[in-house]
Design brief:
Radius of gyration: 18 Å
Helix content: 25-40%
Oligomer: single chain
Number of helices: 8
Structural class: alpha+beta
Distance between the termini: 23 Å
Strand content: 15-25%
Strand order of the largest sheet: 4-5-1-9
């Protein structure tokens, strides 16, 4: 079962209030002791706030490559952000015993003035991806759709972005039994990578600030009432 959530950065509380509300803050801060830029801090904590608002708590840890995970729950999660949004994907373990694994990436179409698609295509895309890019018209939108798939696939693999150049989204389905799902939220192009047999939501569940805070308040109340949970 897959869950998808998102929130605009402008809907998140200020950094100091976000930190105080986030049950995962101590573990996050230990991993990112030098993260001082407010925008990047807010985006990173925003992904964890969405995870908590979705109902998941526990001991947060990080792999050697810096990928966060929950030690006590049979789920995998991954989050990403653009200049305006944070998105979270969660894969819960099924009864078939297959370990959950998921990757998500998003890019803003407003990046047009800051990237050079042709140069990045030549450097990072495989031959099949270059052909797909050309067949889709060689537009910025085509580039971002493939690029977000590559990053989501690299995150699904769990090896970090160091495998990005070798990650071939054109052969991934046959080789790994996965699929890519495309979403769009305002100016964000979003790709999710997961096992192809999974049922995916038709759209991302976008939260407003009041919904996020209500969910967090409910979880805090339950923890206070059941401190051993």
């Amino acid at each position: 079962m897959v869950e998808l959530y998102g929130i605009r950065l402008s809907e998140l509380p200020p950094v100091e209030k976000t930190a105080s509300r986030c049950a995962f803050f101590d573990a996050w801060h230990a991993q990112h002791p030098r993260c001082v830029a407010e925008s990047s801090t807010l985006a990173s904590l925003g992904g964890l706030l969405l995870l908590e608002a979705a109902g998941y708590t526990g001991k947060l840890a990080y792999t050697a490559l810096g990928r966060p995970y929950l030690c006590d729950l049979p789920i995998d999660f991954n989050y990403t952000h653009t200049a305006t949004h944070v998105f979270l994907a969660i894969d819960r373990a099924d009864a078939d015993g297959v370990s959950p694994r998921i990757g998500i990436d998003a890019e803003d179409t407003g990046r047009e003035s800051r990237i050079e698609p042709e140069r990045m295509v030549m450097r990072w895309f495989t031959e099949g991806e270059r052909q797909a890019y050309e067949e889709e018209g060689g537009t910025l939108e085509a580039f971002l759709r493939i690029w977000t798939k590559k990053e989501a696939f690299a995150k699904w693999q769990g090896d970090g972005l160091r495998v990005l150049q070798k990650s071939d989204t054109c052969t991934a389905t046959a080789q790994y039994g996965i699929r890519f799902w495309d979403y769009r939220e305002e100016n964000s192009v979003i790709s999710v990578c997961a096992r192809r047999e999974l049922a995916m939501p038709k759209q991302i569940r976008m939260l407003a600030r009041h919904e996020l805070l209500e969910r967090l308040s409910e979880k805090k109340t339950r923890r206070n009432e059941n401190p051993d949970d």
